[in-house]
Structures are given as structure tokens and as C-alpha cells.
Amino acid sequence: MASFYVYTNFPSISLSLREVDDIKNKENSEEGPYMEISKKKPAFPINQGLRKYLRKYGRENSIALTYEDMKRWNDSTPVYDSNGKNTLWDSVIYDSSTQEEILQGLVKIYAQLKTDGDEELYGHLKVGQIDYCLFGNSNPFRVKIVNQLNDNHDYFYIKKADASRVYGLELEHILSPNRIEYMVDGDTLVEAHIAGIPGDQFVENYMDTANFYPSAMAREFVKFNTRCFVMLLGDMRSYNYVIDVTPDFDREQYRVRPIDFDQTAYEGRKNHYLPQYYKENNKIVDFCIELLTPQTVEQYRYEERTLMKRRYKLAQARLNRLLDSMLYQEISTPEKIKSLAEDLNKYHNTKRFSKYRHMGRILKSHLSLMLGKPKPKKFHGKVDFKSKGD
Q1: What is the pLDDT of residues 193-243, one digit of tens each?
Q2: Of 235, 241, 236, the residue nearest 199 (C-alpha)
């Protein structure tokens, strides 16, 4: 990757949150409203290059069940939360002829995910519940694993493999502070549970509690916003990430973790990759504007890009192999590729993106520019967080 960095000079403006929303809602792309997300993104098959990468780094394993096997359930009941609200998950039931095969296979898969298949350590585990999600692109199965000795439980997910999602999982694993556990077998994807408070619940309930520390959350949201943009992780509305809350000796600390990677390098507008622009995140963005000065925001962005650059240097060969497998992989449409190229040309003050015909090339060039030589900006006038694009 080239070792350089290009900064874009933003106008010195200060708009209210609602004014910014009004402006962006009036802007139209070829797809419709400015922040409209594709409601049903197609699943893209894993190509040979990505399959080779997964084998090299131990992400491909032969497992006991496939996603299609999991679809053999014959009855279901809706799952409701503690307030009686439908969660859009259904608890599924299998007939007696297949139930034992499914339950035993799921425990074996969990053992593979956690200990490379050492089943001797898992004789005391059983499947507590299997849920099927009716919402979203991947329609996952959520499996609850229960420890019969102490009633502790854990979850994992079985999904239909999608190249977009696999690329997102790997980018998050390599460049973020978070480690991701998953494995692939053919067209089946198995993911470990990512623990945390769902973002929509955090915004609605947790932010009004006595322990909530706004400044720490504002800092983390700016860093999360930066990570998503650098990696082109799209559609980070509040229900597509969780917040990991860690009590510290004097206050709480927060880590925002994506849980939905289906829109990685798929959408056609730059702002699709910036969580700050989704109305579902407005409550967090509001207090970011109130609490953070432009200098502080730029400090947090600089810190996060620097940390990502260090992670890249530690895993340079691995990341380059991943990006090389992505160069000719179809993970978006020509219209979206052209639109994003125009946005990134403007953002990076270049014309290089116009020549690219695949999202993989756009992402590789974008990473090069973002992680080349991060350094602070100088500010002239007042700038608010909502109006920024990185």
C-alpha cells in the first residue's frame, strides 16, 4: 500500500442536527433518498481467491451441519422480549426423526468454534434453544448452548455464507481492537456471539441511567465512526451494533462493536459508511456535538487511525492477501461503484477512484489514503461533529 495521506478541507460551518438532516434528506442519489439503504442486499458467493484465503488462515472447516440442514424445522413460535414485544425471532422445533441429529451436530459445531473440535471438554453441554430470524438479509439461526453443570449459557449463529459479510468480519478482526470468531464450510457461515447491549436498547434505556458517562461514550462513538469509514462498513444503524460496557475503577468504559457486516463495501454513497449520519444514532450524535470540540474530535480520529495503521503493519501480509482476493469479487453493482467512486474522489481530492470497476479496488485505495500518514488538521472557525465526513 502507498504510504501517504490526503486531507480534505471542510467548510467552517455550524449547523444544528435538524438542519443537517433537512439538507441531507433533500439530496438525492440515483437510488433515491440520500441515506436510503438497500432493503434486500443480494448474497454474493465466495470466490476462489477468498476461499483460498480462508483455508490459509484457518477459517474454513468441515462442520457437522449446513445452513440448509437447519432449515428442516417443522414448527415455530414467536420470541417476545421481557416487555412483550415481538423480537422478530421465532423459536423453531424439529421433528423427532431429525432432532437428535441437529442437537448433536450443533454441540459439535460449538466445540469446533471454541476449541478446534475437542469434544471431550463439552460433554456437559446441551442445546437450550434454536431461534430463526425473520428480519434482515442473512436470516440467521441463533443457537443457545447451556452448561448443565452451572446453567451458564452462550450463543452462536449459523448463516448462509455471503462474501460481503466475510470480508467485513475479516477487516474487523484485523484492523479493529476486536477479535472475531467465525468459520466457513461451503455456503454455511458460523459466527460466535458478540456480547453487548444492543445499540437501540442502549440509546433508548441505558443512556438515562446514573452510571452512564457521556464523555466516554462520545469518544468511543467518534472512534467507531472512524473505524467504519476506514473499512467501509455500512449500515451501522443502532440495531446493527452493540455496546460493550466495562466498569473501570472510577467510571464506565464503552466499546462499540458491529454485529452486522452484510453491507461491507456495498452501498454507493460515502455517508452510508459513517454511523453519524443515520437518524437512529441521532441521540448519541447530539451529545457528541454538545460535549466535543473540533480539536477533540480530530484528536480521537487521529488516535484511531494511528492504531489501525499499527494493526495493519502487524498483519500486512494477511490484509494484502484479503484485499487481493477482493479485487475482482463482485460485491456491489456498477451504479453503486460509480457513485461511491465520485464521493471518494471528492473526499480525497483525487481522480483515482474513477478508473476502478470493482469495490475491492476502491477499498484498497481508500485504505491506503486513510492509513498512509494520519496527522491532525488545523481548524479555522467552528466545526461540528455532525457535519464531518471521516
Answers
A1: 999 999 999 999 999 999 999 999 999 999 999 999 999 999 999 999 999
A2: 241
Query: How many CB atoms are located within 10 Å of the residue 335 CB?
Result: 12
3-state class (DSSP) for residue 190: strand
CA–CA distances in Å: residue 82 to residues 79, 86, 87, 193, 296: 10, 10, 10, 20, 39
Same domain, 67 and 26: no
The packing angle between helices 214-231 and 163-175, to 10°, is 120
Tell which residue, 267, 272, 261, 42, has the closest CA to residue 170.
261
Cell of 122: 463439552
Residues 74 and 32 in one domain: no
113 CB neighbour count, 10 Å cutoff: 20
CB < 8 Å & 24+ apart, contacts of 302-308: 302/374, 302/375, 302/376, 303/223, 304/222, 304/223, 304/226, 304/227, 305/226, 305/230, 305/370, 305/371, 305/374, 306/374, 307/177, 308/175, 308/176, 308/227, 308/230, 308/370, 308/371
pTM of the prediction?
0.88
Q: What is the pLDDT of residues 95-113, one digit of tens each?
A: 999 999 999 999 999 999 9
231 with 287, same domain?
A: yes
Range(s) of the domain holding residue 305:
17-46+195-387
For residue 33, give the H/E element and its range: strand 32-33
Burial of 247 (0-12, 13-18, 19+ CB in 10 A): exposed
152 and 236 assigned to the same domain: no
**36-40, 250-254, 300-304, 359-363: range with lowest mean pLDDT:** 36-40
Do 76 and 33 lie in a common domain?
Answer: no
* Number of domain units in the chain: 2
How far is the CA of 362 from the CAs of 35, 296, 321, 358, in angstroms?
20, 29, 16, 7
Cell 442473512 belongs to 138
What end-to-end distance do the CA atoms of the chain give, in Å? 20
